[in-house]
Amino acid sequence: MSEEKQEHAIEVHLDRLLEERGMTLTELANRVGVTHVNLSILKNGRARAVRFTTLSRICEVLECQPGELLSYRPH
Description:
This protein is mostly helical. The chain has helices at 14-21, 25-32, 36-43, 52-62, 66-69, and strands at residues 10-12, 70-72. It contains 5 helices and 2 strands; from the N terminus they run βαααααβ.
């Protein structure tokens, strides 16, 4: 199986964090400085990578730790 076709075992909990903070994806995108589309790809688990700078900004804006945003679920 090629690397591009492999599924990853990382789950993204952005929906829960946004709901807990009463924030929309659009508001988060504006505050983080990334596009709504890019955050949507991350939120839906379709991202193949995330920059540490983006992860840092998301954590800063949501006042969370990376472990609250991401978790590992083996297949």
